[in-house]
């Protein structure tokens, strides 16, 4: 019995040690972020290289996802966007929902939502084929990435440490994106480089 318990404990430790690989797959922090080309809501091509020299935030979104509604309904996401775009950060909101899936919208509807919610991204990118999302292995909405001016991935993961759809949790949440951007702006290394993303699964085409 004692041996079985020891084997179980070792198995559990191994499982917990390897669990992060499941959510930290895809591009690796400290290495070049995947280049991409997508179109914005006006049909204009946008590439990561367009923003060379600037810090870039990538935010995967789905307006019907309750986790996304938590951040936008409380105006927390909008406040974060306004704070950092006002300091020269590029904020790209990405919609990778496939046509017919939850969260799939066209450019006009995306613009309406941006205006209606008072959002302030630099641009909203439409990725119905999921090309950009799969390149980044974006798993949830929201799923956040920060890219340095030289194209290095500096952060990937959840927006904060409260994986719930409860607006009340925003009051005590540690916002990893805000913390990372603050450190980057101060010329400091990012303390929390990866975290577990949470939210609705990205609705890719099958």
Describe this structure in words.
The protein is of the alpha+beta class and 206 residues long. The chain has one domain (27-201): Glutaredoxin (3-Layer(aba) Sandwich), CATH 3.40.30. It contains 7 helices and 9 strands. It has helices at residues 2-18, 20-23, 66-73, 76-85, 107-117, 131-136, 176-185, and strands at residues 37-40, 45-47, 56-60, 90-95, 123-126, 140-141, 144-147, 153-157, 200-201. The strands form 2 sheets. A 7-stranded mixed sheet has the order 2-1-5-4-3-7-8, with helices on one face. A two-stranded antiparallel ribbon has the order 6-9. Strand 1 (37-40) and strand 2 (45-47) form a beta hairpin. Residues 1-21 have low confidence and may be disordered.
How helix-rich are the residues, as a percent range? Answer: 25-40%
Radius of gyration computed on alpha carbons: 18 Å
Which band does the percent of strand residues land in? 15-25%
Uncertain stretches: 1-21
The best one-word shape is globular
Distance between the termini: 46 Å
Q: In brief, what are we looking at here?
A:
The chain contains seven helices and nine strands.
Give me the secondary-structure topology.
Blueprint: H1 2-18, H2 20-23, E1 37-40, E2 45-47, E3 56-60, H3 66-73, H4 76-85, E4 90-95, H5 107-117, E5 123-126, H6 131-136, E6 140-141, E7 144-147, E8 153-157, H7 176-185, E9 200-201
Parallel strand pairs: 3-4, 4-5
Antiparallel strand pairs: 1-2, 1-5, 3-7, 6-9, 7-8
Task: Give the tags.
two-stranded antiparallel sheet, 32% helix, 9 strands, alpha+beta, 206 residues, globular, 7 helices, 7-stranded mixed beta sheet, Glutaredoxin, single chain
